[in-house]
């Protein structure tokens, strides 16, 4: 590798808390990626080991995969290039093959971005607390000296396809062969679900299931010509909602760019909240664990998930554990508690049977199984899991976030409430009629509000009162 004369590399703009993400050609380049690949091997002590490298459909992913592989091989690791993969395919491969790995994706970010999600063997996450900072520092050192020192024996680079193995593994976890026939519209958003959906739910690699799949935007295209691959934004669900109604489908599924998150639409074209999906999957996983002899299966949920989730878990004989927002927290608590399943309000779903990693496809399969084993429509099934009314996440652009939270605290201090500070500030009415959380963004000047109440009028009253105070 070569380094420009007198140029000092500082990778802090692209190294985030859980992954690497930057603008192609600016904060993430092939030169940077090669140094990160070398540092990855050194920090994790992987010389002589096999590492797995893949990428999504972004135009820069093949070049970056090769550069990372070159850096890793220079430091003595043997690399298996997995080619086009979803992020949960990487987690599958790292788990099933017990090898560390990396995939190139910027998830739902716009086309100009790419990034790296890295994992230890067994699909254990790497974050700023578990190696990412050290990888950054060593990569900067290699870049600033202009040299990646060669290991005594250069590693070999080969190719491996894991799509069929991944698909077979998921089908073993959720048997859909006995489902009633379902018509499913899937919006892949030109992302990796365009590859994984036909493999897992269709008949491309495995025997056909009793499903008719109506594809939306299955063409892999990292320029995202139809809409951003971010189903968290309501406008990006509109095409799917219209298609579900038009085709008279039973369900709609929307995946983000790297297909690790899944959003669900009912037969009326209405979203089923990620909290309801968490409850639905939790019920199935609790029953399965109990049938296998587990007395009180543990379910993880973050503090923005509907309170319907812990209520349902308790009713079904499980134990609910509340955590901060963010996948590294969830995965850590999953491991500590031996939890069978975890869900987040952002549609990340985690499974013990999937090495505590998140997979949108496995969550979708559980929903299809729940829908397919009964005769009613998804709108009726979903209603059982959504007894409360939620505001969704509302952002306010505030410079003095602490001051805004303090105004809210003072205004509510005469009420019969509890406040906790696990992640931001959560205000809960002691009579159980409402709660809300105010959480400052770590990366943007936003204060995020999530509110939930027993009915629409109460939710709107609380939401509007808090927003008036925050934005005063």
Automatic annotation (TrEMBL):
Cofactor(s) needed for function: Mg(2+)
Record NCBIfam families: PRK09542.1
Alpha-D-phosphohexomutase alpha/beta/alpha domain span: 14-141, 165-269, 282-387
Family the UniProt entry places it in: Belongs to the phosphohexose mutase family.
Domain Alpha-D-phosphohexomutase C-terminal, residue spans: 393-467
GO MF annotations, alphabetized: intramolecular phosphotransferase activity; metal ion binding
One record GO biological process: carbohydrate metabolic process
Source species: Paenarthrobacter aurescens (Arthrobacter aurescens)
InterPro entries in the cross-refs: A-D-PHexomutase_a/b/a-I (IPR005844), A-D-PHexomutase_a/b/a-I/II/III (IPR016055), A-D-PHexomutase_a/b/a-II (IPR005845), A-D-PHexomutase_a/b/a-III (IPR005846), A-D-PHexomutase_C (IPR005843), A-D-PHexomutase_C_sf (IPR036900), Alpha-D-phosphohexomutase_SF (IPR005841)
Highest taxon in the source lineage: Bacteria
Record keywords: Isomerase, Magnesium, Metal-binding, Phosphoprotein
Protein's name in the database: Phosphomannomutase/phosphoglucomutase
């Amino acid at each position: 590798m070569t380094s420009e004369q007198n140029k000092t590399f500082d990778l802090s703009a692209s190294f985030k808390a859980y992954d690497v993400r930057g603008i192609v050609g600016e904060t993430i380049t092939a030169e940077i990626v090669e140094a990160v690949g070398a540092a990855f091997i050194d920090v994790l002590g992987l010389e002589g080991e096999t590492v797995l490298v893949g990428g999504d459909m972004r135009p820069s992913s093949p070049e970056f995969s090769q550069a990372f592989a070159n850096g890793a091989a220079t430091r003595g690791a043997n690399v298996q290039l997995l080619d086009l993969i979803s992020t949960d395919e990487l987690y599958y491969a790292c788990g099933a093959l017990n090898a560390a790995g990396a995939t190139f994706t910027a998830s739902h970010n716009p086309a100009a971005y790419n990034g790296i999600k890295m994992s230890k063997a067994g699909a254990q996450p790497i974050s700023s607390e578990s190696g990412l900072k050290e990888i950054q520092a060593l990569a900067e050192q290699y870049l600033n000296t202009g040299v990646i020192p060669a290991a005594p024996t250069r590693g070999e680079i080969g190719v491996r396809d894991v799509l069929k193995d991944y698909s077979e593994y998921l089908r073993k976890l959720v048997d859909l062969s006995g489902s009633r026939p379902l018509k499913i519209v899937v919006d892949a958003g030109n992302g990796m679900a365009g590859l994984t959906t036909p493999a897992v739910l269709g008949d491309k690699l495995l025997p056909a299931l009793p499903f008719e799949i109506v594809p939306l935007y299955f063409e892999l295209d990292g320029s995202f010509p139809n809409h951003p691959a971010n189903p968290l934004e309501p406008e990006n669900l509109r095409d799917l909602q219209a298609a579900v109604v038009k085709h008279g489908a039973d369900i709609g599924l929307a995946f983000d760019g790297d297909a690790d998150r899944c959003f669900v639409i009912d037969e009326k074209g209405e979203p089923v909240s990620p909290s309801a999906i968490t409850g639905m999957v939790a019920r199935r996983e609790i029953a399965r664990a109990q049938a296998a002899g587990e007395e009180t299966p543990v379910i993880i949920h973050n503090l923005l998930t509907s309170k319907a989730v812990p209520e349902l878990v308790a009713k079904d004989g499980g134990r609910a554990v509340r955590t901060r927002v963010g996948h590294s927290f969830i995965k850590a608590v999953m491991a500590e508690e031996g939890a069978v399943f975890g869900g987040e309000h952002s549609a990340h779903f985690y499974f013990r049977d999937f090495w505590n990693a998140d997979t949108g496809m496995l969550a979708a399969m559980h929903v299809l199984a729940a829908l397919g084993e009964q005769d009613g429509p998804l709108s009726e099934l979903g209603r059982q899991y959504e007894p409360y009314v939620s505001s969704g996440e509302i952002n306010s652009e505030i410079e003095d976030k602490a001051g805004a939270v303090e105004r809210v605290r003072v205004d509510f201090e005469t009420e019969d409430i509890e406040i906790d500070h696990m992640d931001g500030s959560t205000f809960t009415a002691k009579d159980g009629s409402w709660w809300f959380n105010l959480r400052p963004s770590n990366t943007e000047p936003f204060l995020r509000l999530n509110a939930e109440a027993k009915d629409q009028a109460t939710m709107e009253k609380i939401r509007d009162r808090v927003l008036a105070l925050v934005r005063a």
